[in-house]
Amino acid sequence: QVQFVESGGGAVQPGGSLRLSCAASGFTLRLYAIGWFRQAPGKEREGVSCISSGDNGRSYYSDSVKGRFTISRDNALNTVYLQMNIVKPEDTAVYYCAAVPCAVINGRVSDYGMDYWGKGTPVTVSS
């Protein structure tokens, strides 16, 4: 059974940092590209970042987080990470990870082909 479990969310002040984790099970993580997405209250789901399959996946970022967020993967631990630095109030959302082909369209990571995602972990950026 394919499963994703996100963790690491919480409350943080603007300018601070958080590291989100996405623990995968039920499949061979190394074979899949994994993306991070977020959804704020009342807003549409937004792609944040994506990392391609393999041991040294290529990273993709939406313009809104480029230079602040870093995606990485540890296939041995079946986990994908999202390091969030210099967070802003507009980063407040529930963050999800999902299996998805990596693509950036008009400066945003695409959710086309998104398959299997977890319940998410909430991030609140506020002073």
From the N-terminal CA to the C-terminal CA, the straight-line distance is 40 Å
Q: Unreliable stretches, pLDDT < 50, 5 or more residues?
A: none
In terms of DSSP E residues, the strand content is over 45%
The amount of helix comes to: under 10%
Tell me the major beta sheet: 7 strands, mixed
Helix run count: 0
Question: Overall 3D geometry?
Answer: globular
* β-strand number: 13
Radius of gyration: 13 Å
SSE string:
EEEEEEEEEEEEE
What is the mean predicted local confidence, pLDDT? 95
Structural class: mainly beta
Give structural notes:
Strands 2, 4, 5, 6, 9, 12 and 13 form a seven-stranded mixed sheet that branches. The chain has a four-stranded antiparallel sheet with strand order 1-3-8-7, with no helix packed on it. Strands 10-11 form a two-stranded antiparallel sheet. By secondary structure, it is mainly β. The protein has strands at residues 3-7, 10-12, 18-25, 34-39, 46-51, 59-61, 69-74, 79-84, 93-99, 104-105, 108-109, 115-117, 121-125. The chain contains no helices and 13 strands. It is globular, with a radius of gyration of 13 Å.
